[in-house]
Amino acid sequence: MDPKAFFKLSYGVYIVSTSADGKNAGCVINTLTQVTAEPARLSIALNKNNETLKLIEISGTFSAVVLSDDVTMDQIKRFGFQSSRDANKFDGIPQGRDGLNNPYPTDGVCARFACRVVSTLDVGTHVIVVGEVIEAEALDMNAPALTYSNYHHKKNGATPPNAPSYQKDAGTVVGYRCKVCGYILESDTLPLDFICPVCGKDASYFEKL
Fold this sequence. Notes:
The protein is mainly β. The protein is 11% helix and 36% strand.
């Protein structure tokens, strides 16, 4: 099997969020897909270890926003490279609240959806969640959506280990990989004071390839 074949699949970049038991959670995904038009339904895939999935299972709802091409890497790092178990990702940022009481970020966003869960499917490491769209709003018709390809090539983004598209095999690369965001430092040595340029974790979070 050639893992490079998967790189030819096209994706967007999105933030999914929810609220339950007085707590907000959200994460970056590349798996938001429209599966039906009537009724309008979207599917997402989340890792079983994801805190956002756990709260979605409690609330039975989720919000999904489409990131625009000019979204900052700081916004992506906030939602993609730390856990909602450890941080309030919505603290201090511009945000809205949908009709299902889920928060969503408003900076770097060109469309949003509010969904009520109608079914789930266990697919091993991840769970596919299908939601019926209750609200849909185009926030910026002139802003192009960020593609997963541009996320990697224009923004030098990394793929977190919890993402469905993450590939563990680093080939013949020699170096160290961040266990949080997947960033690879190509070096024979890892400085003790090294800080990951993507997620900000220190050298203790790196593993030798």
